[in-house]
Design goal:
The protein is of the alpha/beta class and about 260 residues long. It has a single domain (about 5-264), classed as 3-Layer(aba) Sandwich (Rossmann fold). The chain has eight helices and seven strands; from the N terminus they run βαβαβαβαβαβααβα. Strands 3-2-1-4-5-6-7 form a seven-stranded parallel β-sheet, sandwiched between helices. Strand 2 (about 30-35), helix 2 (about 40-50) and strand 3 form a beta-alpha-beta unit. The longest helix is centred in the last third of the chain and has 34 residues, at about 230-264. The chain starts with 6 loop residues before the first strand and ends with a helix.
Amino acid sequence: MAKAHSFALVTGASEGIGRAFAQELPESTNLLLTGRNSERLGQLAEELQVGARIVEPFVADLKAAEDRQALINRAGELEVDLLINNAGLGQFGGVLDVDPQGEVDTVEVNCVAAVDLTVNLLPAMLERAAVRGERAGLINVSSTFAVQPVPYIATYAATKTFLLTWTEALAVELCRRPIDVLALCPGSTRTGMAARAGYDPQLPFRADPADVAKEGLHALGRETVHVCGGVSRAALTPYFAPRRLATRGLGLITGAANRMARRR
């Protein structure tokens, strides 16, 4: 992250990677922190309140369209210039064996909420960045599960695939605009989400959320996709290298088609 942003919105900030992002952002960055746990959000806001820094907890359930709209409205009022879509849900088990509503909620939070916040906040973020001669930022937290179908966490993995490919395409579309776009792909990380999903193998090599957040903030403005952890990066490099070239190539073709269509 070349330059500190003035105001960041972090979703899923109650715990895990979202909480770590809030803690790792510099004190010069004001914070709008959202999640479902008001007590944890309040504690985090109190912890991070330093001097004149603004740290605002905003309780919201991103499954609910009305909560998302309220959050979008507040983020617009605060002139957020860094959006970190971190909130996520998931269930472990066969698609037909787990709670059906839980599967729908997973798609709603992991995909719909991220798209909703992004498409509604980015236009004003880009306009302000252009006027101020600065760069806005967008981090979408995907997963190393995004690279292939994963039975028994099928819906979760598929939502992370969506978020990865959508972010990669968006980065190409916005490559000439004043914004840095990053798809962050953590591997197994010590968060409470795995336990809630019914899948918590307690692997000895799980990453620390603080390390994931640090890597993400460092990669913003330097990479479009960042896989956390040296072992994961080495294993997935053959997958991402040709994808990057293909995405750019397709972007040239579809971009030209889009410009032609707009001129008609």
